[in-house]
């Protein structure tokens, strides 16, 4: 779901000699990051916090539902550039209000990594630096219908995508979670199945694959959006292409994570 992005950190570090004034560091950071502050946090699901970020720099952003921002998880008050950036972590934008100049994120508590720690400790008033929005995992407006498949990490991207689907366009799909308490509130949820995997792993999820297999889809393919764990995405993509004979161009994928591998969104 998140990965490191060292390009900005390396460029800033190389451009900032030791002992440079704080104002110079700030100007360099401003070249690569936008800045806002946490306005509110809310426990929106058992392991998911909604973090509302606002500020003048968030007005008029070019955002499409499904796109992401990259959060600098470092200490905003640290003396060194690298300390202030920390590691970058990528989060889908749950909601964007250009008039209020606010972005809402849903941050999953999934361990002790820098992203999960940042999400747990974020409080109103915290300065937040980020890059984006960015990404091509967005709705295809010409699709005759849309199919969504993923687990908890995908739900944050799917939420705004579902809200953006015109009311006359059919929606199908399955969004898996470990328990009912882990479910994010989703628009048009009646059109989706919400399977529970219990204690089973979300990696290579047979539960999610079986849920997609049982959906009665139209004879002609629509567009599928598969997000979350990489191996599960591959299984569902194979099912659509080989068993339902969808063209590969109709299957849009976004792997956020897989066990034991870093460097993925």
From TrEMBL:
InterPro entries on file: FNR_nucleotide-bd, Riboflavin_synthase-like_b-brl, SIP_FAD-bd, SIP_fam, SIP_rossman_dom
Stretches the record annotates as Disordered: 1-21
Domain spans labelled SIP-like Rossmann fold: 144-259
Polar residues bias (residue ranges): 1-13
Recorded superkingdom: Bacteria
Residue ranges annotated for the Siderophore-interacting FAD-binding domain, each copy included: 37-136
Pfam family, one: FAD_binding_9
UniProt-recorded name of the protein: Siderophore-interacting protein
Native organism: Nocardia macrotermitis
């Amino acid at each position: 779901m998140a990965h490191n992005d060292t390009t900005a950190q390396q460029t800033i570090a190389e451009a900032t000699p030791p002992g440079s004034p704080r104002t110079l560091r700030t100007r360099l950071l401003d070249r690569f990051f936008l800045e806002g502050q946490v306005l509110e946090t809310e426990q929106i699901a058992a392991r998911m916090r909604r973090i509302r970020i606002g500020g003048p720099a968030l007005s008029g952003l070019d955002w499409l539902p499904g796109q992401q921002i990259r959060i600098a998880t470092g200490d905003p008050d640290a003396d060194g550039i690298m300390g202030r950036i920390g590691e970058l972590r990528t989060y889908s934008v749950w909601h964007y209000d250009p008039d209020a100049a606010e972005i809402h994120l849903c941050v999953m508590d999934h361990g002790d990594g820098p992203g999960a720690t940042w999400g747990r400790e974020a409080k109103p008033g915290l300065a937040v630096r980020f890059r984006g929005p960015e990404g091509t995992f967005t709705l295809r407006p010409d699709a005759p219908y849309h199919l969504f498949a993923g687990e908890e990490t995908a739900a944050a991207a799917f939420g705004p995508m579902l809200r953006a689907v015109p009311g006359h366009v059919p929606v199908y799909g399955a969004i898996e979670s470990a328990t009912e308490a882990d479910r994010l509130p989703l628009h048009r949820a009646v059109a989706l199945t919400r399977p529970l995997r219990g204690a089973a792993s979300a990696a290579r999820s047979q539960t999610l694959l079986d849920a997609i297999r049982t959906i009665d889809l139209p004879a002609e393919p629509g567009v599928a959006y598969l997000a979350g764990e990489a191996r599960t995405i591959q299984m569902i993509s194979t099912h659509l292409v080989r068993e339902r004979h969808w063209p590969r161009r109709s299957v849009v994928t976004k792997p956020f994570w897989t066990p034991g591998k870093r460097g993925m969104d």
